[in-house]
Structures are given as structure tokens and as C-alpha cells.
Amino acid sequence: APPAPAAGRPPGPDLSRYAAGGTGAPPQPMAYAPAAPPPPANSWEAVRPVARLAALGPVGVAVHGRLQELQPALSECFDRPAAARGVRSAPGAGEGAEGAGPTVLMLELEEGPDRVRIAGAPVATRGDAPEGVVACAQHVLEGETVPVPGARGGARHRVPHALIP
Strand, helix or coil at 161? Predict the structure, then answer.
């Protein structure tokens, strides 16, 4: 048989510890900070990132092919004397833990008539790549133009790219 309720208490579990100040009133709701304002419409932050280049169809295929061609130059960035300094890259928009894996750049792609240009490559997630490696990789990538027959002029895309040796 269940234990008898204490005198003056209703049957069931004692929920008084959940009451604000023990008054029996429900606790106050959690207060959150107001949402950040949306980024300006013409900024890169307003362009929704895609998870993979494949989501961009022929544009993604062409950019992926060019990134494969650039991989030897990107790998050289890890071997240069600037990389040996061991200075960590500055934090970017992402808040990845330092040394928690590869540094990820967010490729900013601008489509033009029959071409795509890598307009920028800011740090999206800080990883274990030193500042010299990041700067070198950005130099290799930024401004690179990829021919893409049928590319629309004016479209913009953001896609992550991990830096690997």
C-alpha cells in the first residue's frame, strides 16, 4: 500500500520545490535575448549556405573540379615557412573550438555569364590550421574563375570548404 499523505497535503508527489518562492505559483518563464537582426539583403551573410557543392548542380560540379585542380597548391600552403610559425587563424563567423579539426573556409561564389568566380573565402570555422596556412589558402582561392557553360549572371552562393593538407 502507498504511504499515507502527510496531514494537510493532497495525495501525490511533493511538487512544492518547483514553485517560485514556495508560493505555489509556477516559475517565471526563461528570458532570452532578442533575436539578432537579419543581415543586410545585399551582404554575403544574407546568402544561405549550401552544405555541399553538389547542391549547385553544374556550377557545383565545375567548382569541385577546379578545387581538385587547386588542391596541390592548397597543400603547399601547409608546407610553407609561414605555416611553421604556428599562429592560429583569427576566429571567423563560426565558433569552432581551436584545434578541433580542419579549418573551414566559406567559399563565396558569384556567377557571371558562363563562369563562376570565388569572390572570397573567409574563415567559417576555426580549426587547427595556422594563420599562415589560412592566408595562403585564401590567396590561392580568392579571385579564381571557373568556366561554367550556362551559368546565370548575378546568382551568389556560399559553400563550406575544409582545408586539408
Answer: strand
Residue 68: which of 146, 12, 5, 156 has the closest Cα? 146
* Angle in degrees, CA 42, 161, 46, rounded to 5: 15
The string of DSSP codes covering 99-117 is TSS--EEEEEEEEETTEEE
**Band (90; pLDDT cuts 50, 70, 90):** very low
Write out the H or E segment, with its range, that includes residue 162: strand 156-162
Q: How far apart are CA 23 and CA 151, in angstroms?
A: 66
Residues facing residue 104 across a β-bridge: 125, 162
**Set of cell numbers at residue 159:** 559553400
pLDDT tens-digit readout, 4-55: 656 666 677 766 666 555 555 666 777 788 888 888 888 999 999 999 999 9
Amino acid letter, 20: A
